[in-house]
Amino acid sequence: MKNRTLFACQKCGYQTPKWLGKCPDCGAWNSMAEETACQSARLPAGEAAKPLPLSQVKRDLQQRSSCGIAELDRVLGGGLVKGSIVLIGGDPGIGKSTLLLQASAHLTGTAGSVLYVSAEESPEQIKLRSLRLGINSDGLYLLAETNIERIITQITALKPQAVIIDSIQTVFTAAIESAPGSVSQVRESAGRLMLLAKGSGIPIFLVGHVTKDGALAGPRVLEHLVDTVLYFEGDSGHAFRILRAAKNRFGSTNEIGVFEMKDSGLCEVANPSELFLAERPLGASGSVVVAALEGTRPLLVELQALVSSTSFGTPRRTTIGVDHNRLSLLVAVLEKKVGLQLSGHDIFMNAVGGVRLNEPAADLGMIMAVASSHLDKPVDPQTFFLGEVGLSGEVRAVSQPEIRVKEAAKLGFKRCVLPEGSLKQVKVKGVELAGVKRVEEALATAL
Ligand code: TYD
Ligand code: MG
Q1: pLDDT of 192
Q2: Which of 212-216, 255-259, 413-417 shows the highest mean pLDDT?
Q3: C-beta of residue 94 within 8 angstroms of C-beta of residue 213
């Protein structure tokens, strides 16, 4: 091994042999820090791999073990794959350690022993948490260690069925001089764990911290290195937590898992729509229900809009849970095509329950919520909306309307305003379907 000095951007991981004031990759100023890279001068030991024709590659059915938490299994694509590396990111205090402790307790039952490496908390702290969660499993081993070489020695000695590293930013290797949490430390430690996981078939969960902008701290390369990247989201003011896959080599990235943080830990929410609509004010203007789709799962969400006159020169457009630009665009459509005067008004929009809606199918609902608040006319509480809205005010078809309508029917909704183009794909009893072609028509039928 020989060591070489270089500079790495602490934001994106870009490396350069010379110090630069501005990172040419991500454009950040003053983000370069000196690091030592280790270079292996020898060829790795073992037999070299040879190219194989595709037809001769054996089909390897992925072995998955259930984490015992259905919502987590779903987001992982149907369970934890042998030898895979899963990175879980999220704000501090959101419940990453709680989720993984609960998952490891279940894994000891289904898979065998689990090693929980805590580089942040002492075993006593974890013990306290486990008492709170009612976990007392003999197969669960705790290790308070930050040195990656020692961690790997322990993993090889114990041969657990799964490993949890909490967190990857606090472990370090002695081979590199830079501080724990720096780009090269994080990358090197994760790289070693990956080699271990692939070689031994032990699945490893890594906890990752996120920066102020919500991206995983440390290098983006970490995201490329691992098999699955999950984000644990939610508002610390709310009890709901949503687990979302940003990357998954073994499943879809559209699935979400919904949890509720209680005194006894994270509880799965089997029917999130019911929960998100629980406190809906019936008959209030500006409140509208949309049927969104998260992966394969329909989700009914309440959208609330508040339109009030501007006290300053420039009207404000503030959104929580929906795209800000999308709202501005839809407001422009309402002004130009429907003739509502919104330029002198502040508009606030909120997707209730800390959900994030980034589906165009919520467009019609957003339009209806703004119009309902502006005109101060409530929308019938048993009506919900589906539809993408184009710039000329046309309502466009959405994907998979049938399962969305079915979910709403289950919750007692009686009427659906949806794009005319989606009508023939829906055959659900008990829900009246109102097909619309344009935004004006939707306003006329629902307000
Ligand atoms: P934690 O898992 O430590 O978060 P992270 O590892 O993502 O930083 O979760 C901490 C929060 O969860 C803390 O604010 C307390 C709360 N909590 C509960 O509400 N109920 C519980 O049973 C547990 C264990 C934690
Ligand atoms: Mg933690």
Answers
A1: 93
A2: 413-417
A3: no
Note whether residue 236 is domain-resident: yes
Residue 304 and residue 265 share a domain: no
| For ligand 1, atom 15: residue with the closest CA | 93
Residue pLDDT, tens place only, 214-235 = 666 665 678 888 999 998 888 7
Q: Which ligand has the minimum distance to the alpha carbon of residue 92?
A: 1
- E strands, 222-320, are 228-233, 240-248, 256-262, 265-268, 287-294, 297-309, 317-320
C-beta separation of 204 from 152 below 8 A: no
Residue 103 C-alpha to ligand 1 middle, in angstroms?
14
Same domain, 255 and 207: yes
Burial class (CB in 10 A: 0-12, 13-18, 19+), 55: exposed
Cα–Cα distances in Å, from 260 out to 263, 264, 270?
10, 10, 10
- Enclosing domain of residue 208: 63-270
**Alpha carbon distance 118, 193 (integer Å):** 15
In this structure, which residues have their CB less than 5 angstroms from ion ligand 2?
97
Number of structural domains (the chain) is 3
The verdict on 239 and 371 lying in the same domain is no
265 lines ligand 1 (CB under 6 A): yes
> Is residue 10 assigned to a domain?
yes
Q: Are strands 228-233 and 85-90 parallel, antiparallel or unpaired?
A: parallel
Question: Which ligand 1 atom minimizes the distance to the CA of 101?
Answer: 2
What 3-state class would DSSP assign to 33?
A: strand
Shared domain for 216 and 361, answered yes or no, is: no
Report the atom number in ligand 1 closest to the C-alpha of 94.
Answer: 7
| pLDDT, averaged across the chain | 88
Residues 294, 232 share a domain: no
Q: What atom of ligand 1 comes closest to residue 265's alpha carbon?
A: 22
Protein residue whose Cα sits closest to atom 1 of ligand 1: 95
Tell me the per-residue pLDDT of 264-305, one tens digit each, with 9 for 90 and over: 899 998 888 888 888 888 889 999 999 998 777 888 999 999
Using the structure block, give the residue that is written with the tokens 């454009």: 27
pLDDT of residue 110: 76
Pairing mode, strands 317-320 and 345-351? parallel
Residue closest by Cα to atom 14 of ligand 1: 93
- DSSP sequence for 56-87: GSPP-PPPEE--S-HHHHHHHTSSEETT-EEE
The two three-digit tokens of residue 211, written as one number: 């920066």
Amino acid at 335: E
For the whole model, what pTM was predicted?
0.77
Query: 38 falls in which pLDDT band (50, 70, 90)?
Result: low
- State whether the beta carbon of 98 lies less than 6 angstroms from ligand 1: yes
**Candidate from 261, 264, 266 with most ligand 1 atoms within 8 A of CB, to mutate:** 261
